[in-house]
Write a structure and sequence with these properties.
heterodimer; A: about 240 residues; alpha/beta; B: alpha/beta; 5-stranded parallel beta sheet
């Protein structure tokens, strides 16, 4: 399998992965805030956030124009845009970039949608390798419970409805996410994920994350990382949300 | 006639495509900007239709999915090189699956002005990894014939000046700034593109055509060769 590009810059890249409802976004947010509280310059990046590509993705979804390959490619395009214009410059500048979802989301999801494992891993070969990649492991039913309990209706593509798994949105979602879960599980060793038990309390999970960050990156976080003076935290936050 | 896949492609089969159903012919005309591809494609189309063939012609950045997005992004001049390559790859995949494959299935002759080769050459010219982009593009069908209209950069420059009358930002590779002005950048960039295409010629079995000949001479050469496919 093709490895990603090693990070030889001053800054660090931390990513979280997991199926929807795994709680990863909450944990990443808490981690970012903790880092900021230590006066570290933090930037945040999430999946599907390129303004340049957004219209195309929206149009494609609306008109159901995607095939496995084009779906994979448009998301890779979006990802490349974030990476080239936002993530890499910030990591080079010495910031800690926290990414909610990364190439591994594509590895899991695009394979379930029908492209080969080898092809999608090659596709993302240009990506910077994260310093830390967390995988939030959650049983399928727990994740589904959280999603159905909490949010708006599940969307068409989210449920994999274009794949004809089931006529029922919930059932389709269950099957689709179940397969994605299997792909994540199968890549743990390959990626070197730090696995977090997402059924633990929020506090427990966060503590685990922080312990791992301190153990793996503690030294670098003291030297070399860009600092953000206290009082400028709101400015840093606003700047980080620019995308 | 079954389309066979050569060993060079790390083939990624497209979902839902039964290659035995594809009865048409896939003909590719490749070459750098301003070399005269569109002129030849137009003439070939007319000729083929006179011969009684149904013809589809298609080219880069014109697909329904990504065509508009690419045009808009290009206007803003802010696409990174990898992003641009992948945007074009998305458009190509869309046209392949939604236009080219159905046309081939229906027995059309598909004439395409550029294919994955220009896409790869542009990526390579921008310093991107050749093995990477070759593997990304490996879902493409192998054409029945690939005609590479070959010219040196010094032959292309007058065509830009006398044709469009101006150098274009993207065709000059100005996103990478290969030179301080568009002329210098064009020369450097297109040299790299030509070099990349030259390297592919043998590997992918291009029929290389001297594009410095007259359009009539080039057309006759193409006609002769394409005629043998039927």
């Amino acid at each position: 399998m093709s490895p990603l590009v090693p990070n030889r810059h001053r800054g660090k890249l931390i990513v979280v992965e997991g199926i929807d409802g795994s709680g990863k976004s909450t944990q990443l947010s808490l981690l970012s805030q903790w880092l900021r509280a230590q006066c570290i310059a933090v930037a945040f990046s999430e999946w599907n956030s390129s303004p340049l590509v957004r219209e195309t993705t929206k149009r494609g979804k609306k008109k159901n124009m995607f095939t496995p390959v084009t779906f994979s490619l448009i998301h890779a395009t979006d990802f490349a845009d974030r990476l080239e214009r936002y993530i890499v410059p910030l990591v080079k500048a010495g910031a800690v970039v926290c990414a909610d979802r990364y190439a591994y989301t594509a590895f899991a999801r695009d394979v379930v949608r029908g492209v080969s494992r080898r092809w999608v891993r090659n596709l993302y070969r240009f990506s910077l390798r994260p310093n830390l990649a967390f995988y939030f492991r959650v049983p399928l039913e727990v994740a589904i419970g959280r999603i159905l309990g909490g949010r708006n209706a599940i969307k068409f593509y989210e449920a994999g409805m274009d794949m004809g798994l089931s006529r029922n949105v919930e059932e389709s979602f269950r099957i689709f996410q179940g397969r994605i879960l299997d792909e994540y599980e199968a890549m743990i060793q390959e990626v070197g994920f730090h696995v977090i038990d997402a059924t633990g309390s929020i506090e427990e999970q966060q503590q685990q994350m922080r312990d791992i960050v301190m153990r793996e990156l503690g030294e670098s976080l003291r030297n070399g990382i860009m600092r953000a003076p206290r009082g400028d935290l709101d400015v840093a936050q606003a700047a980080a949300r620019v995308l | 006639m079954l389309l066979k896949q050569p060993l060079e492609f790390y083939s990624e089969s497209l979902a839902g495509v039964d290659r035995s159903e594809l009865q048409g012919k896939l003909i590719v005309i490749e070459g750098p900007d301003s070399v005269g591809r569109s002129t030849q494609v137009a003439r070939l189309r007319t000729w083929l239709e006179h011969q009684g063939h149904a013809v589809l012609d298609t080219g880069l950045a014109r697909g329904a999915l990504a065509g508009k997005g690419i045009s808009q992004a290009k206007e803003g001049n802010t696409l990174g090189p990898i992003t641009m390559t992948l945007f074009y790859a998305t458009d190509f995949a869309d046209r392949l699956e939604n236009e080219i494959v159905p046309a081939l299935r229906a027995g059309f002759v598909v004439l395409t002005d550029r294919y994955i080769f220009s896409l790869m050459a542009r990526a390579i010219a921008r310093g991107e990894d050749r093995a990477w982009i070759e593997r990304v593009a490996s879902f493409a069908l192998v054409p029945h014939a690939i005609y590479y209209l070959r010219a040196e950069v010094r032959d292309l420059v007058p065509r830009v000046v006398l044709g469009r009358g101006a150098f274009d930002h993207w065709e000059s590779g100005m996103d990478m700034r290969f030179g301080t002005d568009m002329h210098d950048s064009f020369v450097k960039y297109q040299s790299r593109v030509i070099h990349a295409l030259d390297r592919m010629a043998k590997r992918y079995n291009f029929v290389v055509i001297d594009a410095t000949k007259t359009p009539d001479q080039i057309f006759r050469e193409l006609q002769r060769s394409i005629g043998k496919l039927f």
